[in-house]
Amino acid sequence: MKKKTPVFDYLDCVSCGICAQACPVSALGMKKEGKSGKYRNLFPELVNDRCIGCGACARACPMEVIRMEGDGDES
Question: Is residue 57 in some structural domain?
Fold first, then answer.
């Protein structure tokens, strides 16, 4: 069975952080993006070693910008 991992559509992400809060194993953090110390947005950042592929982040996302994909989808 292939492990599923979250894939993010950062263009439509509203930086709410709900996905990170929903993760039961703290595999998501919010990465600060910006210049000169002035942050534009916070984006989800995955810690692959912690992710268990449960999909809680994708289910919790109010903007539906997270999809779960399997590793090694090539046939």
Answer: yes
- Domains in the chain: how many in total? 1
Query: What is the distance between the alpha carbons of residues 51 and 24, in angstroms, rounded to a whole number?
Result: 9
The residue written with tokens 């289910």 in the block is 59
The predicted model scores a pTM of 0.80
**Rounded to an integer, what distance in angstroms lies between the CA atom of residue 26 and that of residue 28?**
5
Strand duo 38-46 + 28-35: pairing: antiparallel
In this structure, of 12-16, 45-49, 71-75, the range with the lowest mean pLDDT score is 71-75
Q: 75: which 2 tokens? A: 């046939």
**Residues facing 8 on adjacent strands:** 66
Q: 6: phi > 0 → left, psi -120 to 50 → alpha, else beta; which?
A: beta
